[in-house]
Amino acid sequence: MRLFYRSIALVLCIALSTSTSLYATSGRTPLRVENGVVASASLTASEVGVEILKQGGNAVDAAIATAFALAVTWPSAGNIGGGGFMVYHGEDGHATSFDFREKAPLAATETMYLGLDGKVVNNSNHIGMLAIGVPGTVAGLYKAHEELGSLPWADLVAPAVALARDGIPISYALYSGFQQNQSAWEQHPSSAEVFLKADGSAYELGDLWVQPDLAKTLQLIQEQGRDGFYKGENAKLLADFMRANGGVITEEDLEQYEAVEREPVRGTYRGYEIISMAPPSSGGVTMIEMLNILEGYDLAAVGHNSAQYLHLLTEAMRRAYADRAEHLGDPDFNESMPLDELLDKEYAARVRATIDPDRASVSDETQFGNAYESDETTHFSVADKDGNMVSLTYTLEFGYGSRIVAEGGGYLLNNELGDFNAVPGVTDRSGQIGTPANLVAPQKRPLSSMSPTIVAQDGKPLMAVGSPGGRTIINTTLQLILNVIDHGMNIGEAVEAGRIHHQWLPDITTFEEGFFSPDTVNIYQGMGHEMRERGRQGSAMGVYHDRENGLFLGGADSRVGDSGAAGY
Ligand code: DON
User: Fold this and answer.
1) Closest residue CA from atom 9 of ligand 1
2) pLDDT (tens digit, 9 = 90+) per residue, 508-558?
């Protein structure tokens, strides 16, 4: 059955391209190609990116085309109604990043989710119209194109228009995702129109899924660029939909939204350069702090996923996530974040000195808590024939975001504002952080964990990596990098290996089921750690430049159904 859907995808790809790309589905054996590679959660979207590379597009062009294609083929997280981050590193050494994180609308207030009792009303920061942030994806992709693109914008949006207009087969991943959200579709007529058949029944495996409204919106974007989304017909449609349904995003919010080109954060790890996303993502800073702490240990000798190794990782995670909770937020609203210190190797050495090599520390519950984050986002990585790389993570927050489709627009809206600290001043063990850096304010961006990262060597990009997974993203990306640098894995092995997660509070480590032996778990628990098993942690996508052999490698995590690396 799976093969059947792969072949349908392939036929679609052939239709899109003049000659077939080489491709691998996913798994421990990476794709190895000579000219360029894309690894994403949707093989069809990866193929779209490769087609752009074949047309002479660079990594940024391919990333833009892949991102639009994912908005059609991977609707749980691929989007035009959400936001995210792109990190770029050119073969010439130029590195930059684009922040297209959603913003709170102008009407937002610090206490907008609270009732008279000071508590969040009906989970309204996560569910419903007030959780929707002003989308950033189209503005971000457009800005990246203005700065670094080479092919015409319209050519990059065209494949997504075709996929939405002509339809795609319902894969098992789409089928099961739609099923899980059946009640949401039934609750919102605009969503039912997209995710249920005309007679209200569910899509079946292999059905052709056509998205005419999305095709129309993508066509506006194709023809008018950024303005096709933020002005005119779509802006009116979205603002009208908001007004009619209790939302607060207006035409003015859309008009004023700007994506920002930012300096990435930088660190080094055992001589490699780490280039990652700066705030409003917490990803880069937190990951570099952990790498700095871990650099003081001979991790290769300690052994991949040994109990001792997992202990050291946990202790680094505990400390860096505590700093994350205390200090990080939108840089446009927090001028005094101590980024230099958090990224400093001497600071890391002082933190490392507090780690007992044989015994778990205890997270100080009087200081910080944890807020709920879901597990649906998507990451993809691109390398072009010249060695330029893009690492891009974007999201709607929950799987399918708010599950609310903008009526007539055909696209899902995010529920990203749940990433703000909803209750000012209340930080407790039950799962809340109320620290000031990440409180709601008009036009502010909520703190993110998305960690698109590029590792470079001697100023040239070596690998581009990242993952979805809410707060686990930073730890997934960390372990992927350690797998390659310390443990000598190839990019396929590195994305597939089992992972753990600790985030300061709750003081529990989660282990991915099926990867760790009972002996390892026993020794680890014997050091004083509490652990729990969980299902998959993230879905990592990576590309790697094997300069010695003149090859590009793509690793697409088999943890998600439709994933695949494609290349030529
Ligand atoms: O920005 C963040 O960190 C979260 N909103 C991302 C959500 C996420 O990763 C869910 N999925 N995998």
Assistant:
1) 470
2) 999 999 999 999 999 999 999 999 999 999 999 999 999 999 999 999 999
- Separation between Cα atoms, residue 202 and residue 192, nearest integer Å: 10
pLDDT-derived band at 428, boundaries 50, 70, 90: low
Q: Would the CB of 450 count as within 6 Å of ligand 1?
A: yes
Catalytic site residue 378?
no
Q: Is the distance from the beta carbon of residue 496 to the nearest atom of ligand 1 less than 6 Å?
A: no
- What DSSP line would sit under 106-162, residue for residue? TT--TTTTB-TTSSBSTTTTTSSGGGPPBP-HHHHHHHHHHHH--S-HHHHHHHHHH
**Cα angle, residue 35 at apex, residues 33 and 39 outer, rounded to 5°:** 65
Does 58 score more than 60 pLDDT?
Answer: yes
The amino acid that residue 312 corresponds to is L
Burial of 121 (0-12, 13-18, 19+ CB in 10 A): middle
Q: Which residue, among 523, 482, 518, has the nearest Cα to 499 in the 3D structure?
A: 482
Q: Span 393-404, mean pLDDT? A: 98
Q: Verify whether ligand 1 is closer than 6 Å to residue 439 (CB atom).
A: no
DSSP 8-state class, residue 421: B
Question: Is 351 buried (19+), middle (13-18) or exposed (0-12) by CB count in 10 A?
Answer: buried
Half-sphere exposure of 449 (CA within 13 A, CB side): 30
Active-site residue identified among 44, 377, 435, 453: 377
**pLDDT more than 90, % of the chain:** 89
